[in-house]
Design a protein that fits this description.
α2 links the parallel β2 and β3 (54-56). It is globular and about 60 Å long. The protein has 316 residues and is an alpha/beta fold. It is built from 12 helices and 14 strands. It has helices at residues 12-26, 44-49, 61-73, 84-87, 92-100, 129-134, 147-157, 204-217, 235-245, 260-271, 291-297, 302-313; strands spanning 9-11, 30-34, 54-56, 77-83, 107-111, 140-143, 164-167, 172-174, 188-189, 196-200, 222-226, 229-231, 248-255, 276-281. Strands 3-2-4-5-7-6-12 form a 7-stranded mixed sheet, sandwiched between helices. Strands 9-11-10-13-14 form a 5-stranded mixed sheet, with helices on both faces. Strands 1-8 form a two-stranded antiparallel ribbon.
Length: 316
């Protein structure tokens, strides 16, 4: 099995900031809006380099979405930046009515998603955002796994016509993905396997790779697929993999309802019913603790993936 290693850790939000900085230099139509979180979203460089294209709207997220929608009418490509909770739950009506309904070319960029926000606690740890956004007609939903992938996704969505939800995180995580391979809607097979398919998204991709290495030591061959684009889902890649393995585990930093797991379950139900286990938060809110403590308690780490794999293999 291919081994993945890393030499450094970086937060995925820095990948967004660096991608936005690069876009600012090469695409004059890219504009950025932030809701009083410029530093947290790593948008400082864009603001410094292009003050005429940066709009600090303050703590007024609903207004930010309306402004972004309006800017598209003149041909601009607006990137909004705030925490995932404020990017979705707080402004869902504005996104639905002003952006999704009229298919506005707005890029909704959301940091501090999921439990790994950590010590800020349940009020900020949104675990429903993927479900909220994927249900909106025409909305593309992307959830990246490391710095490299987040930077490449940020650059890629500028060329994509239509609304996009780009989800990333707060903590520093391993940088392990190769560059130059990101394509919207195209899954990435990271390891070949024959006993079980593991499809993972976001921070759970690295956890799944670690799980696969440990499983290999026990004689279990796991195929790990990085699903960075949850909508549109790369159903072809999933179906091709389960045709070999006969069972699947989905892994995500999200509520088990409404996330990647349910999208995969729908795909399987319509094509080839297959045993599936879910590694996800079990219909609960989070709490305040370190990211590692929360991932362990809520069973969304490598140990949870291993447990799910052993369970699903017995159901084949």
């Amino acid at each position: 099995m291919k081994k993945y290693t890393y030499t450094e850790k970086k937060d995925t939000r820095s990948g967004f900031g660096d991608g936005l900085t690069e876009l600012g230099k090469k695409n004059p139509n890219v504009v950025a809006l932030c809701a009083d979180l410029t530093g947290s979203l790593k948008m400082n460089a864009f603001e410094k380099n292009h003050p005429e294209r940066f709009f600090q709207v303050g703590i007024a997220e609903a207004n930010m979405m309306g402004i972004a929608a309006g800017l598209t009418i003149g041909g601009k490509i607006p990137f909004t930046g705030t925490f995932a909770n404020f990017s979705t739950g707080r402004v869902y009506d504005q996104i639905r009515q002003s952006i999704a309904y009229s298919n506005k070319n707005v890029k909704i960029c959301a940091s501090h998603a999921g439990l790994t926000l950590g010590e800020d606690g349940a009020t900020h740890q949104i675990l429903e955002d993927i479900g909220l956004m994927k249900m909106l007609p025409g909305m593309t939903v992307i959830n990246t796994c490391d710095y490299n992938q987040t930077k490449e996704a940020t650059i890629a969505i500028a060329d994509h016509q239509g609304p996009v939800y780009l989800r990333f995180g707060r903590p520093s995580v391993p940088v392990f993905m190769p560059t130059g391979e990101f394509k919207i809607g195209k899954a990435m097979k990271l390891t070949e396997g024959s006993d079980v398919t593991i499809v993972a998204t976001g921070h759970l991709v690295w956890e799944s790779l670690q799980a696969a290495e440990k499983l290999e030591e026990e004689g279990i061959s796991a195929e790990v697929i990085n699903i960075h684009t949850i909508k549109p889902l790369d159903e072809e890649a999933i179906l091709a993999s389960v045709a070999k393995t006969g069972c699947i585990v989905t892994a995500e930093e999200h509520n088990k309802f409404g996330g990647l797991g349910e999208s995969v379950a729908r795909c399987l139900a319509l094509n080839t019913p297959t045993p599936q286990e879910f590694v996800a938060v079990n219909d609960t809110f989070g709490e305040s603790a370190t990211p590692a403590e929360l991932m362990k308690k809520y069973k969304i780490n490598d140990e949870a993936v291993i447990e799910a794999v052993k369970k699903v293999i017995k159901r084949k």
